[in-house]
Write a structure and sequence with these properties.
Elements lengths: L10 H13 L14 E8 L5 E5 L5 E2 L5 H13 L8 E3 L2 H7 L14 E3 H11 L2 H12 L2 H14 L5 E2 L25 E2 L1 H14 L3 H5 L3 E4 L7 E4 L15 E9 L3 E10 L2 E10 L8 H18 E7 L10 E5 L5 E6 L3 E6 L6 E7 L10 E2 L7 E9 L15 E4 L8 H14 L6 H5 L3
Parallel strand pairs: 14-18
Antiparallel strand pairs: 1-2, 1-12, 3-7, 4-5, 6-7, 8-9, 10-11, 11-12, 13-16, 14-15, 15-20, 17-19, 19-20
Amino acid sequence: MKKRNGYRIGAAFLSVMLLISLLTPSGMKVNAAFDVNASAAILIDADTGQILYEKNGEKLLGVASMSKMMTEYLLLEAVKEGKISFDDTYQVSDYVYTVSQDRSLSNVPLRANETYNMQELYEAMTIYSANAATIAIAEKIAGSEAEFVKKMNEKAKELGLEQYKFVNATGLNNKDLKGHHSKGGETDENMMSARDVATLAYRLMKDYPEVLETAGIPKKKFREGTEDEIAMENWNWMLPSLVFQYEGMTGLKTGTTDFAGYCFTGTAERNGQKLIAVVMDATNAKGEGTYNARFVEMKKLLDYGFGQFERQEIVAAGNQIKGNETLPIQKGKEKEVKIQTKSDITIWVQKGSNTKYKANLVFNSSDLDEKGKLTAPVEKGKVVGSVIVKDDQGTAVSFLKSAGQTQVETAEKIKKANWLTLSIRAIGGGIAGGWNWTVDKVTGWF
């Protein structure tokens, strides 16, 4: 995150703004005209990936330090795979040292040729959005930031992101990298769509939920007890004890540059409901981009999610869907197999809505023959399709693509019938059809 002149507004003014914010009831009635003052925004259920609200979700925009969620993902992945440890050390390069000395950028100053461990660099990046610490992590993992950026783009594709461009590890504008940028032009900057930012946050929390243990720390001292000690206050001012504290706030990452504007990916949990919200280039009612604006708009978005939706179960795990209780089997001891949902099918619906929802099956065409039959033998638990939930107008409920769909599986094992059974069936079919069967029909018995 790049600091701007005058970023710290008066404490008194902030207190007034906070008071006004808190006086707005979190469960307020929001009508169809609900809007967020931002160039793009999205709200999703963190458990299922269901999209509850979206504005310009596929528009490619500057993402600033929200890029660091990808750096966090790659670091936590490397730790999980044993390629790196939080106890591993890193010796400061000339590049990292130069960037770290620029206090107009979010930074903890790092000493030239000094050694730091990955844990303290990770905390500096995640809590304080420290840019030089982020580059240090990139160098440790990939050998250079340039190689790390390749990994970022590769991982984005692997995670199913569609609208993105990573040119550095931090989200800074390339011109702030002191001539060390390796990808793109001097004025280039990382870009993503709001939907892709939400997808990245969703996967980060699903695959590495421990990220919230660090992202949720409001304040911490870097190298406490040494002459290099620096107080780090989390840029997420909606965390407990900070000026815009919000009930249930757990993370995740802010971002600000002149190009991207004021951005924020927020995560919160109340009464078992978990939300991920993204605002990009947030503004106030006058259309002005401010630090306050991203928190005000984030509060509005989260209040909407917590106040306007309720959980509705469509089908429980292990249940059958009416009208699709079985699939026909060919060459099996049985002529059909029972199928059931592999997991719960639960969606969030607006309170007071009379809309009806129904589960619709989509079978895997590669597993069925031209007559829509499975071929024995069939194992229990074989996935044969997935479920799409639609409303009474035929509109599908929206989910992030990477969230996947509820699967439908076979509820029992069906063995292949022996040759005698197959022969008798074929003969019986021939009699019923007036003996109009051909040689290729006979050879198909087995």
